[in-house]
Amino acid sequence: MSQVDDIIPIRRTTYKNEIIVLSEFYGKIHVLTCRVAETDLDFVHFGDQAMASTTLNDLPDVILSNIIAAVSDVRSRNSSALVCRKWYLLERATRSALTLRGNLRDLFMVPTCFTSISHLDLSLLSPWGHPLTSASDPALIGHVLRHAFPSVTSLTLYARNPSTIQLIAPQWPFLEHVKLMAPAAQIAAAGDELKILISECGKLNSLDLSAFYCWTDDVPPALESYPSVASNLTCLNLLNPSFSEGFKSDEIKVITKACSNLREFRAACMFDPRYIGYVGDEALVSVSVNCPKLAILHLADTSALSNARGDPEDEGFTQEDAKINVATLIEVFSGLPLLEELALDVCNNVRMSGPALEVLNSKCPKLRSLKLGQFHGITLPVESKLDGVALCQRLESLSIRNVADLTDMGLIAIARGCCRLAKFEVHGCKMITVKGVRTMAFCFAGRWSMSESLAAKTSSLKALEPIQDRIESLHIDCIWDCTTEDLEDLDGFDLNSFDQGEVSGRPVEHTAKHFTGSDYDYDGMGSASKKCRYSYDLNSSYTAVDVNSNGYENGNGYGERTWEKLRYLSLWVAVGQLLTPLASSGLENCPNLEEIRIKIEGDCRELPKPAVREFGLSTLVNYPKLSKMHLDCGDTIGYAHTAPSGQMDLSLWERFYLIGVGHLSLTELDYWPPQDRDVNQRSLSLPAAGLLQECFSLRKLFIHGTAHEHFMMFLLRIHDLRDVQLREDYYPAPENDMSTEMRADSCSRFEAALNRRQISD
């Protein structure tokens, strides 16, 4: 083998137990393949035949270390460490992040080979939700962790009470990033945790409290008490959905004044002008004045952070207007020239915001992501002139929510002006029709994340057909009771009607893309040499017909195209509705779909017994690569105990929703059981445990609720199950530990039984 001076990575990827690295070697492309699970090393190449017997072990250690460091998949890294001792040492030396699992009782099993770890996550230790100080010798825990992970600079910690922070924080005095986690109902004391943390971590530059419940008025005093640490902070995340009230105007002023060097600031605020201390013009201006270096700013009302679905009949306007005017927004944007990501979701009307958004394009040249909620008048195009947010040409991600006056013409203007968009989300914009979505689809190329009620209707999915082979993630509100009127709205709709300026003032070839095979062509639809006619047939898919200069059709249609790049699908389903119409709505062919999230929301107490036996999970077998599922019934409300005559209790609803889950080849499942809010109970039922045990391919199962020990023992029948945990990471969490569903001893006995089993691989 000739001397190797350097290997320049071109692309890195991992698939299951293979590490694949494409590299450039002396101007020739080679493929280095290592099947680490089988210790079968080979060098598959395109070049000299003399190198056919060369293995990866012949590479210099520095280069091999860089290759292993480029692997991000955890299982692939673990497999690479099993190849040989050399690989084991290199993998351990290059791993930078570790999430520690296991039981507090088993300190002897804490690994000591990850001395290079810089990011350590201790929030998922078992039993979940129990503080580290609940062990018999808390001081020993701190000593063992410091010895095993001496290089930690970033820590994620479940802190149920101040004693946990007192125990852990001194172990790593040079911590730079800390994320605290704890459900609201499990906080024993308030205010002390932050002061203890800040006092012990003098080098702190990033603090994340987005999953840690505390009183909002505890944060400003803690930051003011240690001004040197506060001024050193560059990242502060206070975007916590469990806050009953957001930060008020005076608190925002104090926080931003104390943390003047912030580059990232996220906070849940109180924008409602009916409350004393609401965030208005003065508070927003103070943010730009006190923190001029901000690159990321995210301010949202607490009601916007909840997962509650809005009223589908709501027109988009609220009763109260926010006390934020256009002049203030212009002043704020002008004071933040380094802004790259901006999110403002105020949940109260901000009217005629277009002029302020135009300033973003000139005053914030680095802005790439924009999220707006309850902003009206963001673009009001007149003839071919672009205005408002449509002038933000550098945007790559745009999310708009509850923009009451956004019409199809505004949607098309955004498509024309924001030509770099890779992600686009629309929520609750009632004036947008299927025609507008279809026109925008022809204008867009790239990834599209669509979140709009009409996207669940068959006609709307058809409207996305021109770009469906480019969509990587998709959200659908499953509203199946639509009529044929939506399809009729598209009858006779012709894009060619816009080629004289009705949509834009420039030629149509710049506003829409011509589809050829699997690529979009910018050569144009309005040129003299080639034009493209679009027609819509209610009995078939969209059709694009090329017409050459002689008037003959080239027969280039869309036909039965697949969702080739769709990897992630998110669904919202009202309680009582079925999942079975999903495939027939246009999503029957998703060959690469890997992950699906289903959120079911509603009150079961208002519904009769379903007329069919199952929800329809078995229909998902049509997706061959589906391996991960989030099934969230947490906002499904019902009777945990005996239900009135003619109604079903939650155990029967769980059976309804979980029937068919065993038919899927899932390897990872997150499940939120339904709840009874009257008794604050969210527990796994007997039918649910019985159905989950039929998921024989599962390796990871996380139940976001409680469960009886004997129900959990059913899960031991899943042969390859490696990781199971009960997590009460929701609000409000259970308030006591006396239930048999929550005892630490029960969780420990189950985990011991799980770990005693032999795993095939």
From TrEMBL:
Entries under Pfam families matching the protein: F-box_5 (PF18511)
Domain COI1 F-box: 59-96
CDD domains: F-box_AtTIR1-like (cd22159)
Gene3D superfamilies in the cross-refs: 1.20.1280.50, Ribonuclease Inhibitor (3.80.10.10)
InterPro entries linked to this entry: COI1_F-box, F-box-like_dom_sf, LRR_dom_sf
Protein name stated in the entry: COI1 F-box domain-containing protein
Organism: Rehmannia glutinosa
